[in-house]
Amino acid sequence: MRVALFCKDKPDALAIRIENRPAHLAHIEATGVVEMAGPLISPEGQMCGSLIILDVVSLAEAQDWAARDPYALAGLFESVAISEWKKVIG
Q1: Is residue 49 classed as helix, strand or coil in its secondary structure?
Q2: Which among 3, 25, 76, 87 is placed 20 to 30 Å from 68, CA to CA?
Q3: What is the Cβ-side half-sphere exposure of residue 22, based on CA atoms within 13 angstroms?
């Protein structure tokens, strides 16, 4: 199943994002369940969140993946919405 994670950064947390980005990318590489991912961009052109599409067996697996993400462990996110997602186009 595909699961979408929509993560919004805390205000003024760009430094946390940049500092933890290598570990976050390593987590993506090591787990092998990320189908698509990329940062959300503010009107000012700065990274301010993440949209991640996982290909997992269950919603619980997606929640566990999100909890172990180095960005989450560093306290980067103000909010995280996790929902099953159906790919229709693309």
Answers
A1: strand
A2: 87
A3: 1
> Which of 4.10.910.10, 3.40.50.300, 3.40.50.720, 3.30.70.1060 is the CATH number of 2-84?
3.30.70.1060
Specify the pTM.
0.92
Maximum Cα interatomic distance, the chain, rounded to a whole number of Å: 37
Q: Which of 32, 79, 37, 88 is nearest to 57 (CA)?
A: 32
